[in-house]
Amino acid sequence: MARPNGDPAGSPDIVDDALRLVGAVRRRLIVAGVRRGVASATGGTPRTPDVWEQAVREEQRQDEPALDQLLGIVRTKGPEVAGHLGRAGVVLVGALGETWTVIGRSIERAQREREERERAGATEPTRRPG
Question: Does the predicted model carry a pTM greater than 0.90?
Answer without folding.
Answer: no
